[in-house]
Amino acid sequence: MVYFQISPVGFDCGLDKNNCDKYPDYCKECVRSQLEEFGLDLKHNLKFSIIDSKEKRIQMVQDLIWQKFLDVLNIKHIILIAKHSGNTIIDYPISGSGVNTELLTGFMQANIAFSESGDPSLSSENYNINHQDYEFQYEKFNILLKNGQYIRACLVLDHKASSSLKTLVSEFLQDYEVRYLEKLENYIKHGKLSFKDTIDFVIETFNIKLVFPMVLTHTILPEMLDSIKKNPKQKAIIDFAKQLLDTKQFFFIINLLDEVQKIVHIESNILLYEIYQLLEKNIIIPTTIEFAESKILQFQESQATRIANNELISSLIGNDDEINELKERAKNMDEEEAKVSINSFIKKAETAERGLIYKEAQKEYEKALYLATGFDFKEDIGRISFMILENDKRVSDLELEYSLNAGEKAEKRKDYINAINYYRQGLVLLRKAEHFNGNESQIKKFEKKIIHLQKHL
Fold this sequence. Notes:
The protein is an alpha+beta fold. It has 18 helices and eight strands. The protein folds into four domains: about 1-50, no CATH class; about 70-210, Beta-Lactamase, CATH 3.30.450; about 210-285; about 290-455, no CATH class. Helix 2 crosses helix 10 (about 270-280).
């Protein structure tokens, strides 16, 4: 028989407090008796709190979700170590922290050995022991280490662990060892077992999906669409998510929060609660890092076909003296020299962008992308490709703004032919990017202006 502990559980007693003679003095006994009718064991670990309004319940959930988010943002790396051998069975990086896990596990094993021997030389300032819990500094990170019966869970953190994260790690260890007991026992006896199939459980427990790349669903059911339209916060979230997807293949919740809060001054926990509702309804969908990488590869194939053959995107700068010189130098470069040159080109491009010299920035980015592709630096290819996309978008936005302003000025002068010409240029720019969301209304606006002006000719 399997015994379950369910925490936290909410229970609606079904009565209005204004019409109940037992409220609030006898609520605990009343709820206990009702729950016992369902066969629940309430002899141990009963925590009882009255939340007597819908607003308080929502606020409690908002705070819980926000704390989950803060906790997962704090986690840089999760490592599970077999106690009997000291070997790593799960090595799951959440962000590019640059931690050398082999050195870290060796450092931890040494510290644990010293602590268990009672060596007084350990400084309590840097090393804190609480029964099976260890907290210490390693390089620039905070380490939380907890012992289970068979494994140790090590979390590499930016900041010290919150009490909720410590509790979560304890619950995780207990659940993991029960769920994968047979696998752990086989590993202890025979070794050479893969635990990759348990990573989904790690992801689910620590809410890691909250920091995954996100996309929007392609289809929203009519009733859900009506619900979103009635909720201005959710509507704003969807609109800003679409804007982020205009220039990238995916977005992150932290960036979405920042973008919405630039315009709408709403507390972060309230916004995250609304985002969480959209996640629950599968309107915002978390994707895997592998999916994000595949999107980058798709970008390489579709947007940089000639680059795949180690050619430049823009034929306009193909005969530039600097480009020709780079092509010759690249033939004799090693990987280290290529990396240094790529970073130099990117810095020059970013400087040009800050000076609003976008064509120059484009040239520097393309030189960086040319080298990255030639040396098959996949991570750099994806990163620089996105930079080029964003630079292109800025150029298009400026050209569009110029077309609109020039068209309006020509229209005021009653120079209708030039006005139509400028508006048509703007229409071409918009239609080039019509796969982006949100352009439909602008396209209609330009089309109406052109139809209206043609009546004057």
